[in-house]
Amino acid sequence: MGRSQETFNKKEVRNKKEKKRKDKVAKKQAKNLTEKKGGLEDMMAYVDESGMITSTPPDPTQKKKIIKAENIEIGIPKRDSLPEADPIRKGSVTFFNESKGFGFIKDSETHESIFVHVNNLIDEIKENNIVSFEVEMGQKGPIATKVKLFK
User: Fold this and answer.
1) Which of 6, 52, 57, 133 could be a cystine partner for 147, CB 3.0 to 4.6 Å?
2) What is the pLDDT of residues 85-115, one digit of tens each?
3) E-strand spans in the chain?
4) pLDDT confidence of 61, banded at 50, 70, 90?
5) Residue 55 contacts residue 46 (beta carbons within 8 Å)
């Protein structure tokens, strides 16, 4: 069997690839020569007492504040500090479907829409009635329980 001969087109493709590779190496070397060598000092950032990021280190002669770790509060405040809300609320029925057995009550204080089911009713209700109720958390959100007409 004879040897396959290299065509002109194959030589051109090989030469272009070789030239591209040499250009890439030359660019990398030129970049390394001109690039400023960054040290650790160039990368450092400092935070001042007001929380701003600066490039200058803090002055060690300034007096430091001593903060006890016990005094730092992390997270949300405890529920004990919040005032206890009245469990019995007042609101108006915005929607009630008797055939399906559910509706919604708009709380008069928070203006929140609360789901109500026919099983949680003490008195029969209709739309625009003023009712008193208690709120419990259900699977999908707040649910009105012990719903009765407000007199």
Assistant:
1) 133
2) 678 899 999 999 999 999 999 999 888 999 9
3) 46-47, 53-54, 88-97, 102-107, 113-117, 130-137, 142-149
4) confident
5) yes
Domains of the chain: 88-149 (2.40.50.140)
122 vs 142: CA distance, rounded Å: 18
User: What pTM does this model have?
Assistant: 0.45
- Do residues 114 and 108 touch, judged by C-beta distance below 8 A? no
Helix-strand-coil percent breakdown of the chain, rounded to 5? 25, 30, 45
d(CA 41, CA 97): 71
Across the chain, mean pLDDT equals: 85
- In 3-state terms, what secondary structure has residue 103? strand
DSSP H helical ranges for the chain = 8-34, 40-43
CA of residue 80 relative to chain centroid, distance: 26
What does the DSSP 8-state code read for residue 11?
H
- By C-alpha distance, which of 107, 97, 112 is closest to 133? 107
pLDDT at 57 over 80: yes
